[in-house]
Write a structure and sequence with these properties.
- By secondary structure, this protein is an alpha+beta fold.
- The chain has three domains: about 140 residues, no CATH class; about 70 residues, no CATH class; about 90 residues, Arc Repressor Mutant, subunit A, CATH 1.10.10.
- The longest helix has 17 residues.
- The radius of gyration is 27 Å and the shape is extended.
Amino acid sequence: MTAQWLTPHVDDLGPPDADEFAPHLSDGNGHDRPGEQAKPGKPRFELVPFNELRPGTEPDYLVAGLIPRVGIVVIWGPPKCGKSFWTFDLTMHVALGWPYRGRRVEAGTVVYCAFEGAAGFKKRAEAFRRHHELEAEPAFYLLAARACAVLIVHHCGVNDTRPRGHTSLTGAVDAQLAVARDSANNIVVSVEWLKDGAEGEQVVSRLEPVRVGADEAGHPLTSCVVIEGEPSAVREIKTAVKLSRSAKALRDAIVEALDAHGADTVIRGNTVRAVALGNVRDEFAKRYVTAETDKTKVANAKSKAFRRSLDRLPAGFGLGAHDGAELVWRA
């Protein structure tokens, strides 16, 4: 299993040359014909003659019934459910050419791109090595993220209570900072979540205009610099952005359930987006993490947390009975 990237070079972004789409002789499987060398400036787009479009003999899978030989595979689930452990074990079977749970495996080189949680892979590799008493050197390579921080500047969702898009983003980050304006037009940055750190800290700033020149007509050109704001502005937003773990799980569960299962419904004379409470409960169970290990206790803990969080429904949502069903809607 090999990761590949196709990235245009800066100098490739202009109009294409005439040779860009020139036919490139191929054997139909992405390889040059024997005895024919690729010319300098080989075109990016390969044209294969019709009479060479023949099926190959390669298997169409890496792991039969699970992983195709070529393509994009999504392995998804809520945080801390074992996704990366399972994927690591699966790819090790490919690297070693071992059958996987009775399924045929096409052996190959694995390049595992660990762009989060890479520090723990040495321990995972050692655990695999010891458990399987591994002596062979598998064709497995780890491509870890460099020792740097990646800052994603993102928009909020429609109801401005969470980052826009799927909650898989928030499940993968090491820190989440919320930015808002207060009534004094200050920029307030709040720490919503920080791995191995304290939540709730805030930084208050404001923008100060600076003249940077003039245009051809003599009109001033301005920009802004960020300077420290008044600390008194902190208290205004602090209570609004601080949410408990269960409240965050409920808020994300409602948004996800509304997106996936919601429908326009007339409630109290207004048309709103509503969803069955059961759908919200299912999404909450995926997101709420408990320290319990027994399945019955896990289910009970999640059920209790869900009921408690409903008593403090996040702002912007409504809850009630409609036509004999319990619904949650976006207010």
